[in-house]
Design a protein that fits this description.
This protein has 1196 residues and is α+β, with helices and mostly antiparallel strands. The protein folds into five domains: 221 residues, no CATH class; 64 residues, no CATH class; 341 residues, no CATH class; 164 residues, no CATH class; 48 residues. Helix content is 55%, strand content 10%. Helix 26 runs antiparallel to helix 27. The protein is globular, with a radius of gyration of 39 Å. InterPro entries: EF_hand_dom.
Length: 1196
C-alpha cells in the first residue's frame, strides 16, 4: 500500500497542471454559456453607426449588463493567461467606477462600448492553453502580448480620465467646445480599434501565419474599423439631443462661442436656451450664480487646453482607480466572510449578532419590525440580561463559600481590545452604563442609526448591517450608546471646529497676496461655503454636559480617532479632491452622508485653510481654489440626494417636510431643504461663539493678525508645506517668451517652406489697411504634402496645419480656441514670401469673396519687421525703401545687442504704454469699473503697438496685463446706474437693501452721486452707503450693516451737536467754549485734519476711534495720521455721511405708490367738491336763465 501511494513531489508537480486545466475548462464553460452576449458586444459599435437611434440607444442601455458578464469572463481568462491581467484590471476599474455615476453621457458610453469591443477579442486566447507556448519565431505568447497589454491598459486609463473630465463639465461647457471634445473621444475610439487590430495581427503571427476557425470572423475587421473611423461624427450627431442641436445652431447663428459669451444679452439668451441657470454653469458653485461669474467661467472654459486638462486630471484619476481597486477587494473579502458566517449559522439563522438574534427569536419577529418596537425591545432585553447577571453573581458568591463553580461571564462586556486602547492595563468591565442611553429619550438617534432607509421599520439586513459595522472588539451595547448620544457630541465638536476655521479663513483672506485674493474671494463667497454655514446653523448642538459621562466620552473619542485615521488615508489618496459623487462614494461607500458630512467638511476645510495660509506667501494657481469649491460642492450634491430621498419618505406621513427634517440628524438638513437662497442677515460665521464643553486645545488657526507680531506670522507661514498643493506655485510674470525655444524650427531646412516666418493677417476697408491679431511669428515644417507648425501672436501660441502642392500652392489653418481661419496662397521663391487670402473657416465653402482678406508672410525676423517698408513705399522708390529698412533694422540690432539706454528706455515706454492701453481697452470691452475709454488716437496707438512689437514681447506684456487684472478686486455685481461690472471699489446703499441683506443698490466709484431706481428701491445720494476696497463676505455683512447704522447715527448726532454748539458760540451763549473742545477732535479728517463737521465725509466702521475721512483724502486713498486712528487700514469698510440730517426711512416704490395713492384720494375729494360746487352753480344759472326766458315770453 505504501509503495502505491503518490509521491509528495509528484503531487506538487501535478497540482499546477490540474489547476491550469481546471481554469481552462471553467473559461470555456463560461464562454459557451455567454457566447451570445460576448459576440453581441464584439463589433456592436461598428454596427451601431448604420442603425437608427433607437437601436443605438438599446446598445447603450444594455452596456452595463454586457460589461458585467464580460468582466466575469475576463477574470476567467486571466486565470489561464495571467499576462492579460493588467489590461483586464484597467478595464474593470474604469468601467466599475463609471457605472457608479448616477448619470452618464451617451457619447461617453459609445467610447466605452468600443473599449468593451476591444476586450472581446481577448477571448480568442481561450483556444490557446499555454501562455508559454512559442510561435514560429520562437517568441512565447506571453512575451508577444505583454507589451501590447501594457499599452492597452495605459490607453484605457487615459480614456477613462478624459471621459472623467468631460463628464464633470456643465452642459454648456461641453457644448461650446463640443467639436474639440468629440474629436478627442473619437480619437480614443480609433485607438481602441487599432489595438484590436494589433491583437489580431499578433495572434495571426503566433499561429504560424494561419488564422484558425475561431479567428476567421476577424477577416472583415479592417472594414468595420474603417466604418467606425469614418462615421464617428455621424454617430455623435445621431446621439445629439434636441437641446444640443438647438444650442449648437444658436451658437453658430450668433457668430461662434466667443461671440456668445462676450455679449451679455446673447449669453443670457444662450443660458435660457440651454435649459440651465447661471449657477448650474459652474459645477463647483464657486461663484454667486450671476452673469459676471458665468462669463468668467465660460471664458475660462474656452481658453482651457483640453489636452492639458486631461493630463492634469490623470494623477487624480489614477488615485481614484487605486481606491476603487481596494474597495472592490474589501467588498469581495467581506462578502466572502458574510457568506461563510451565514452558512455556518444555518440557513434559517439570518440575524448575525447573538444578542440581536436572541431578541429576534424572543419577540417572534419575521423579516422586519417597527423601529420603535425594536429600540424598546433592546432596552428590555439588556435590562433583563444584566438582572440575570447580578442574580448569577450573587449566587456565585454564595456558592463559592460552599465550593460551587464560578458563574458565567457577562453577556455583553466591553471588549479587552477597546479597554486596552482607552486605558492600558485596565481590566474589562461590563457596559451596563450604556443602558441608560437605550431609552425613549434617545429613540430618534438610535432609529436613524439602525433604520437605514428611514421607513420606520428595521429589516434583518439593516440589523445585520448595523451590528457588523461596529469597530472590532466593540460590544453591541457600547455601539448603541455611541449612536444614541456619542454621535451627537462628536457632530457638535466638529461643528465648533468648522465654525472656527471659517471665521479664521474670513480674516485670513485680507492678508493673502493680491494675486490670490480674487480666487480666494470667489471661493469663500461661493455657494459651497454658504451652504456649509447653512448646515452648521441648521444643526442642533448637543448640551455641553454630555461629556460629563467619562465612559461615553471615551468611546466617542475612540470612534472619532478610528474613523479619522481611515478618512485621512482616503483623502490623502485622493489629494483631498472630490470631483464627483462617484469619488465621494469611494470614501463613504453606500452609507448615508449624514454620518460623514461633518468629519469630511472638517478635514477638507482644514486643508483649504492650510492652502490659504500658503496663499499669503506664494502665488497659487486659481484652479487650486476652483478645486476646493468643487470638492465642497460634491459633498452638498450628496446632501441634496439624501434630502430628496428623505423627502420621498417623509411626504408619505407628513405634509410639512421641512418641519419633519428638523427631527432628522439633529436638523442638519432642515435649512438646506428646498430652493437655496442667500441669507446674509442670519449668517453666523462671525457671530458664533465656541460652545462650552467642545473646546480643542490643539487647534491650529494661526496666525492671529491682531495679536501676533510679524516674526510670529512669518514663522507660521514658513512651516506650511507646499506638498498640499495640487498645482505648482506661480510667480509674477518676469520672463520674456522665446518662441523659437518653445517651438524650435527643423534642425535641417529640407524645404523652402521650412523654418521661421513673420507676417500679418490684414483687412482692407475703404483703402485703409488694418492688421488683425497683430504681427505673427510662424514656424513651418513640410513632410510630403503636409504642413505643420505653430504661430505666435500677442495672445497665444496657435496650431497650424495645412497642405502644399507641387506648384507651391499652400493652404493652412490657424486654430484659436473657439474659431479658425484658413489661409490660401502661393509661395514665391524669388521674394521668399507666402501671400494670399484668409477667411474664417466656417466661410471657406462660401462662394462669395467679400470676406476674403490678404495675408503676407516673409523671412524678415520678427524684431526687424516693424521697420519693413510698406507696399506703397516700395512701389514709389524700391531702393529708398530697402535702404531705410536696412538702416533702421541695423541700428535697432546694435542697440539691442549692446543693451543701450535709449533702447531700454524705448522698450520700457512701449511696455508701459501697451499695458496701460490694453488694461483700459479690456475695461471698456468687459464693462469693468472704473474705466476711461480709449479715444481714436489711443486706439490707433494700441493697434500700432500690436503691429510694431515682436510677438514674444507683446505676448509677455499681455500676460502682465492678465496678471495685473488678476490682482484687482472684483465683486460679481453690476453698478445699478452705469450697468458695468464693479471692480476695485464697491459702494452699496444700506437704506436701499432688502431685509435679508441680500439685494441692494450697488454703485461703482464713478456713480456715487447717481440716484438709480431698481427692483422697488428708490435711491437718494443722501442715503447711508458703505464703501469698501475689499470684498465683504456674508459673514461680515451680518454685523457690518447694523454697525454702519449705529456709527452713522453717532456721527450725525456729533454733527448736530457741533452745529448747535457753533450756533451758541456765535450767539454769545455761555458754556460753548468748554463743549467745543469736547467735540472738536472728532470733527476733523484723520488724514489731512481739516474740519468735516458739516459733511460730506466717510467714517470707519471697524475702528474703535471711528475716524472721519474727507472726500478729497478718500479719493486719493491718503494714509491716516496714526495719532488720530492708530488701527485704521484701507481694508476697513467706511460709511458715507452726507449731512447732519436724521437718517430717513428707506423709500421704496411701494411707499411712493402709497403716498401717490393718498394724494390721488385727496385730489379725488377736491375734484368731487369742485364738481358739487359747479353743479350748484349750473343749477342756479339754469334757474336764472329760465326766469329770464319766462319774462321775455310774457313781454312778447
Amino acid at each position: 500500500m505504501i509503495l502505491n501511494a503518490p509521491c509528495p513531489l509528484e503531487d506538487r508537480l501535478s497540482a499546477p497542471i490540474g489547476k491550469a486545466s481546471d481554469a481552462y475548462e471553467k473559461l470555456n464553460t463560461f464562454y459557451t454559456a455567454n457566447s451570445a452576449t460576448i459576440t453581441s458586444a464584439a463589433g456592436s459599435l461598428a454596427a451601431a453607426v448604420n442603425l437608427d437611434v433607437k437601436s443605438i440607444e438599446n446598445t447603450i442601455t444594455t452596456f452595463a449588463e454586457t460589461s458585467a458578464i464580460l468582466m466575469k469572463g475576463l477574470d476567467a481568462l486571466g486565470q489561464v493567461h495571467p499576462f492579460v491581467g493588467v489590461a483586464v484590471t484597467a478595464f474593470k476599474l474604469v468601467i466599475t467606477l463609471d457605472i457608479t455615476r448616477r448619470q452618464n453621457n451617451k457619447k461617453v458610453l459609445v467610447v466605452k462600448i468600443q473599449m468593451q469591443d476591444l476586450m472581446t477579442i481577448l477571448f480568442q486566447l481561450r483556444n490557446m492553453r499555454d501562455p508559454e507556448e512559442k510561435g514560429p519565431d520562437g517568441t512565447t505568447l506571453k512575451d508577444r502580448m505583454s507589451g501590447l497589454m501594457q499599452s492597452i491598459a495605459k490607453d484605457i486609463t487615459a480614456c477613462g480620465s478624459a471621459c472623467d473630465v468631460y463628464m464633470k463639465k456643465s452642459f454648456l461647457a461641453k457644448t461650446i467646445k463640443s467639436k474639440i471634445y468629440e474629436s478627442r473621444l473619437a480619437g480614443y475610439v480609433t485607438m481602441f480599434a487599432d489595438h484590436k487590430k494589433a491583437i489580431n495581427d499578433s495572434l495571426h503571427i503566433h499561429t504560424a501565419l494561419g488564422v484558425d476557425a475561431a479567428n476567421k470572423k476577424l477577416d472583415t475587421q479592417d472594414v468595420h474599423l474603417k466604418v467606425i473611423e469614418d462615421k464617428m461624427e455621424a454617430l455623435f450627431r445621431k446621439l445629439d439631443t434636441p437641446r444640443e442641436r438647438d444650442v449648437q445652431k444658436f451658437i453658430e447663428d450668433k457668430g461662434g462661442a466667443k461671440a456668445c459669451v462676450d455679449n451679455d444679452a446673447t449669453l443670457q439668451e444662450l443660458v435660457l436656451k440651454s435649459g440651465e441657470n447661471l449657477a448650474s454653469l459652474d459645477p463647483a458653485h464657486s461663484g454667486n450664480g450671476d452673469l459676471v461669474s458665468a462669463k468668467k467661467m465660460l471664458n475660462k472654459e474656452l481658453s482651457e487646453d483640453v489636452d492639458e486638462a486631461f493630463k492634469k486630471n490623470m494623477k487624480l484619476f489614477d488615485r481614484k482607480l487605486e481606491m476603487q481597486s481596494r474597495q472592490l477587494a474589501d467588498t469581495i473579502s467581506s462578502t466572502g466572510e458574510h457568506i461563510i458566517s451565514v452558512l455556518s449559522g444555518g440557513a434559517h439563522d439570518r440575524v448575525q449578532d447573538p444578542d440581536l438574534q436572541a431578541i429576534w427569536k424572543e419577540q417572534g419577529w419575521k423579516g422586519s419590525v417597527k423601529a420603535r418596537h425594536f429600540v424598546l425591545a433592546l432596552n428590555d432585553y439588556f435590562t433583563e440580561k444584566f438582572s440575570n447577571v447580578d442574580i448569577a453573581a450573587a449566587a456565585s458568591v454564595a456558592g463559592s463559600v460552599a465550593g460551587s463553580a464560578p458563574a458565567s461571564p457577562l453577556m455583553s462586556p466591553t471588549s479587552p481590545t477597546l479597554m486596552t486602547e482607552l486605558h492600558p492595563g485596565a481590566k474589562p468591565e461590563d457596559d451596563r452604563w450604556a443602558l441608560k442611553y437605550i431609552n425613549v429619550a434617545h429613540l430618534q438617534s438610535i432609529l436613524e442609526a439602525v433604520d437605514d432607509d428611514g421607513t420606520g421599520f428595521v429589516s434583518i439586513k439593516e440589523a445585520n448591517d448595523f451590528a457588523m459595522s461596529r469597530p472590532e472588539g466593540w460590544s453591541l451595547l457600547s455601539w448603541l450608546a455611541f449612536w444614541a448620544a456619542g454621535w451627537h457630541a462628536t457632530v457638535t465638536w466638529y461643528k465648533n471646529r468648522i465654525y472656527n476655521i471659517l471665521d479664521a479663513m474670513m480674516s485670513l483672506i485680507q492678508h493673502l497676496k493680491s494675486a490670490n485674493v480674487q480666487a480666494a474671494d470667489t471661493y469663500f463667497a461661493g455657494q459651497a461655503i454658504q451652504r456649509v454655514e447653512l448646515l452648521l446653523r441648521s444643526t442642533r448642538s448637543a448640551p455641553g454636559s454630555i461629556y460629563e459621562d467619562v465612559r461615553l466620552k471615551r468611546i466617542a473619542d475612540a470612534f472619532q480617532d478610528l474613523e479619522e485615521k481611515k478618512l485621512l488615508t482616503q483623502l490623502d489618496g485622493l489629494m483631498y479632491e472630490l470631483d464627483d459623487t462617484a469619488t465621494l462614494r469611494l470614501i463613504t461607500g453606500s452609507r448615508r452622508i449624514e454620518r460623514y458630512v461633518y468629519p469630511l467638511l472638517y478635514h477638507l476645510l482644514k486643508r483649504h485653510f492650510d492652502i490659504m495660509r500658503l496663499a499669503c506667501v506664494h502665488i497659487l494657481d486659481s484652479d487650486e481654489f476652483t478645486g476646493m469649491s468643487g470638492s465642497l460642492a460634491i459633498i452638498f450634491q450628496a446632501v441634496d440626494e439624501r434630502t430628496t430621498t428623505l423627502e420621498a419618505v417623509l411626504k408619505s406621513t407628513s405634509m410639512d417636510v421641512r418641519e419633519r427634517l428638523g427631527h432628522v440628524a439633529f436638523g442638519m438638513f432642515q435649512l438646506t431643504y428646498g430652493e437655496y437662497k442667500r441669507d446674509p442677515v442670519n449668517n453666523t460665521i462671525h457671530s458664533h461663539d465656541e460652545e462650552d464643553g467642545f473646546e480643542y486645545d490643539d487647534e491650529d488657526l494661526a496666525p492671529d493678525f491682531d495679536e501676533d507680531d510679524e516674526e510670529t506670522q512669518k514663522s507660521v507661514f514658513a512651516r506650511m508645506d507646499t506638498d498640499c498643493l495640487r498645482y505648482e506655485t506661480d510667480n509674477e510674470p518676469c520672463d520674456v517668451y522665446d518662441f523659437e525655444k518653445e517651438h524650435p524650427p527643423p534642425a535641417t531646412l529640407a524645404d523652402a517652406l521650412d523654418g521661421m516666418w513673420t507676417g500679418q493677417l490684414r483687412e482692407i476697408d475703404d483703402g485703409t489697411v488694418t492688421v488683425q491679431e497683430g504681427t505673427m511669428s510662424m514656424i513651418l515644417t513640410r513632410a510630403g504634402d503636409k504642413l505643420s507648425g505653430a504661430i505666435e501672436n500677442y495672445t497665444d501660441i496657435l496650431d497650424v496645419e495645412g497642405t502644399v502642392t507641387e506648384n507651391r500652392e499652400v493652404v493652412f489653418t490657424i486654430t484659436w480656441t473657439d474659431y479658425a481661419v484658413v489661409c490660401t496662397g502661393q509661395y514665391d521663391a524669388v521674394t521668399d514670401t507666402i501671400t494670399g487670402f484668409w477667411e474664417a473657416k466656417e466661410d471657406e465653402d462660401s462662394s462669395e469673396d467679400s470676406d476674403r482678406s490678404p495675408f503676407v508672410f516673409c523671412r524678415t525676423p520678427a524684431a526687424a519687421y516693424r521697420f519693413r517698408y510698406t507696399d506703397a513705399q516700395f512701389t514709389q522708390n524700391p531702393a529708398r525703401a530697402r535702404w531705410g529698412f536696412a538702416i533702421a533694422a541695423t541700428i535697432d540690432q546694435v542697440q539691442r545687442t549692446h543693451i543701450s539706454w535709449p533702447y531700454l528706455k524705448k522698450r520700457f515706454a512701449e511696455r508701459k504704454r501697451y499695458i496701460e492701453l490694453t488694461k483700459r481697452e479690456n475695461a471698456a470691452v468687459w464693462k469693468y469699473t472704473p474705466w476711461t475709454p480709449l479715444d481714436d488716437d489711443e486706439e490707433a496707438e494700441l493697434q500700432r503697438l500690436k503691429v510694431d512689437l515682436q510677438p514674444c514681447d507683446a505676448r509677455f506684456y499681455d500676460t502682465v496685463v492678465d496678471f495685473e487684472q488678476q490682482k484687482v478686486v472684483s465683486y460679481d455685481r453690476d453698478c445699478a446706474s452705469c450697468r458695468r461690472h464693479i471692480q476695485d471699489v464697491w459702494i452699496f446703499c444700506i437704506q436701499c437693501m432688502d431685509g435679508r441683506y441680500c439685494d441692494a443698490i450697488d454703485l461703482c466709484c464713478e456713480c456715487i452721486d447717481q440716484t438709480p431706481e431698481r427692483d422697488g428701491f428708490v435711491h437718494s445720494n443722501s442715503h447711508l452707503m458703505i464703501k469698501t476696497f475689499r470684498r465683504i463676505h456674508d459673514g461680515e455683512i451680518a454685523w457690518i450693516v447694523p454697525e454702519a447704522r449705529v456709527v452713522a447715527e453717532r456721527a450725525k448726532k456729533a454733527f448736530q451737536e457741533a452745529s448747535s454748539l457753533l450756533s451758541r458760540i456765535e450767539g454769545g451763549k455761555r458754556g460753548g467754549r468748554s463743549k467745543k473742545g469736547k467735540h472738536a477732535a472728532k470733527q476733523i479728517c484723520s488724514c489731512c485734519e481739516k474740519s468735516v463737521s458739516s459733511g460730506p465725509c466717510w467714517v470707519c466702521i471697524d475702528c474703535v476711534e471711528e475716524p472721519y475721512i474727507c472726500m478729497d483724502c478718500d479719493a486719493k486713498r491718503a494714509t491716516v495720521n496714526p495719532d488720530l486712528a492708530s488701527s485704521h487700514d484701507l481694508r476697513h469698510p467706511l460709511v458715507f455721511i452726507r449731512d447732519n440730517e436724521p437718517i430717513p426711512e428707506p423709500v421704496t416704490t411701494d411707499v411712493r405708490l402709497a403716498e401717490l395713492e393718498t394724494k390721488m384720494q385727496g385730489l379725488d375729494s377736491k375734484i368731487a367738491a369742485l364738481e358739487e360746487k359747479l353743479d350748484s352753480r349750473f343749477t342756479s344759472l339754469e334757474v336764472l336763465l329760465n326766469g329770464i326766458g319766462e319774462k321775455l315770453l310774457v313781454k312778447n
